[in-house]
Sequence to fold (288 residues):
Amino acid sequence: MFTQILISSYTAQLAAFLTVERMSTPIESTADLASQQKIRYGTLKSGSTMDFFRESKIPIYERMWSVMESSSPPVFVNSSKEGIARVKAGNYAYMMESSMLEYYMERDCHLQRIGGLLDSKGYGIALPKGSPLRDILSRTVLQLQERTILEALKNKWWRDMQSIFYVLLTGLTVAMLMALGEYCIESRNDSPRLKLTIIGMIYDWWKGTSKENKEQKARNKLRNVQLDTAGQVLPNSSTPSKGYTSGRKNENRDLIPNTISKEGLRRLSRMLPATDEKLIHQRLKDSK
Fold:
């Protein structure tokens, strides 16, 4: 899911970029918008942008206000979402504050800004006249701006992409819980489907390793018992000599003599596998 969201986001951004590069935009500025009649334009009803056009004394903005005021059906919208919806529907340009415009553009690749700013204004905090907080707030805002804290906050809320990593973490958690539940359910019946999952493969590998270790320990134990019993099967040597014994210390066991008769070797071969016969010869050779 995380990969799909990441690829979809990248594809949408790339497609929008390439489309904007190839598209011949008929509107490049406010003057182009005012000199044509095909694309209608409007603002938020009773908003600051509407007040700007209504109170402006610049001729081009006065002409645009006259066109917007006399348009039928009305070009003013009740919310920014309604204005963006009309833009997507086609043949409509929505004029709004630059901060809100940047916010919507960061979240919708189908939107495009045309031209520069119509006007430059700043935001302020309203306080009672003569309030002692005025200078404190002004200095604080200037400090936040100088330390680029305001820019960092803007990048956090405008261009933050960490939410898709939360999707990745959620997907991994759900996948682990589902895998654990599948293992618990399928392991009861020893289902062949369990062996096809990753957990089943890991479990089979661990089970096989444990089984091999147990079998190897059992073979070693049996071999030690057989070697200890071999001294009782073979005939005792009349001449004391060095020998070999297998098993625990401080236990009285017969030593395997250095010389073994053919009959003893034949009887010993019946007890041990063929590979262990070579082991007997090698140990007897080392004990000389």
